[in-house]
Design a protein that fits this description.
Rossmann fold, Jelly Rolls, 13-stranded mixed sheet
Length: 212
């Protein structure tokens, strides 16, 4: 099952969102992500958070439309997006598409992008979408579909990434190490319609920027 989660960040190209959705998606909103749902005339199955980013009127409207309201205390250890991803796992999701996870709050954006390193989320096939950019965690192997000229960056998270091998990229890697804090994996270029990335030990964050 795939979950689509609306977070509370910026949502570039909202007109493209309906075409991304499938009829059987489980749609969740993380607090202020409910505003994006209302603007797109989408009713989420549930809205979760402490609701410091939603007006009482919007929250009431979402509840009236049939969304389950899951309230969490303001003094909590998790962000609303983390809570939404954990809820997705509880409800049986194996895949999650996250929208509006990035924005003006750098602390929130960085924390969101590091969520793939959360030990409880390793089993979730996670994709962040932000306009022309798609961001995927890679724990072992992944094939990226794209076009020649697309930009692809590989960033280690949680430690060094060892045994990294790639194909379909202008600057290939062959059983090499990408070190945490170094920038060797930034701004590579896809040379075919598919690029393959394998990592033997560690985790990568793959950022694919489409030119089309």
């Amino acid at each position: 099952m795939r979950t689509v989660i609306f977070a509370n960040g910026e949502l570039p190209d909202p007109q493209d969102i309906p075409s991304m959705l499938r009829p059987d998606d489980l749609i969740l909103a993380a607090d202020g992500g409910g505003e994006h749902c209302l603007a797109l005339d989408i009713t989420p199955a549930a809205v979760i958070g402490d609701f410091d980013s939603l007006t009482k009127a919007d929250l009431a409207k979402l509840e009236y439309l049939g969304a389950e309201i899951i309230r969490r205390p303001a003094r909590k250890d998790e962000t609303d997006l983390e809570l939404a991803l954990l809820l997705a796992l509880e409800r049986g999701a194996s895949e999650a598409l996250v929208l509006a996870a990035l924005g003006a709050r750098w602390d929130q954006s960085l924390a969101n992008l590091l969520l793939p390193a959360h030990p409880e989320l390793h089993g979730l096939d996670l994709t962040f979408v932000h306009g022309s950019q798609r961001i995927y965690p890679i724990n072992s192997q992944r094939t990226i579909s794209g076009q020649p000229g697309d930009t692809l960056s590989l960033i280690p998270i949680g430690g060094h990434a060892r045994g990294v091998t790639t194909s379909g990229l202008e600057y290939p890697l062959n059983n090499e190490t990408l070190y945490l804090g170094a920038t060797r994996g930034i701004s590579n270029t896809i040379t075919a319609t598919e690029a393959s990335i394998t990592v033997e030990d560690g985790q990568l964050l793959c950022v694919h920027i489409s030119t089309s």
